[in-house]
Specification:
Layout: H1 2-18, E1 25-29, E2 35-38, E3 45-49, H2 59-112, E4 117-119, E5 125-127, H3 130-147
Antiparallel strand pairs: 1-2, 1-3, 4-5
Helix pairs in contact: 2-3
């Protein structure tokens, strides 16, 4: 009983789906020559138009389309990867420029300062002696060499 009901329901749905495809299209021409298309006949002159059936699709055409879609997806993935890599390279370049500017600024400050100090463990300032000052200047120059090509 269930199988009959399911079959009847499926048949009814299939019939309802195919009915609009078999509908007629009317081309109506008004008195002024204006053309209008409708699914119902017009009061004036009307001509029944039968739409052409959709062409049969060859299996080779479907296969070619699938291959083309696969290639396009691969190209899109490759393009997205290239854009990501380019964005990473640009971010790294911006970071390098920032560090270069900071290193140059620090070198100017270290080389132009009359006294340099470091902060001791107790929070007090301790002036650098000549050896520590030379080491700080050498480090600042090395940072400029490292970050500024």
């Amino acid at each position: 009983m269930r199988l009959k009901r399911a079959t009847l329901t499926l048949f009814t749905l299939l019939l309802l789906v195919t009915l609009p495809a078999a509908a007629e299209i009317y081309k109506c021409t008004a008195g002024g020559g204006a053309v209008q298309y409708s699914d119902k006949p017009c009061a004036g002159t009307s001509t029944i138009i039968t739409p052409a059936a959709a062409p049969e699709v060859d299996a080779h055409v479907i296969e070619r389309r699938q291959r083309a879609d696969k290639l396009l997806r691969a190209y899109d993935a490759e393009h997205a990867e290239e854009q990501r890599a380019q964005a990473e390279a640009e971010a790294a370049l911006q970071e390098r420029r920032l560090k270069c500017n900071r290193a140059r600024d620090w070198l100017v400050r270290v080389s132009g300062a009359s006294t340099l100090y470091r902060v001791a463990d107790d929070g007090s300032r301790v002036n650098l002696d000549d050896a520590e000052r030379a080491a700080a200047l050498a480090k600042a120059e090395a940072d400029v060499t490292r970050w500024c090509d």
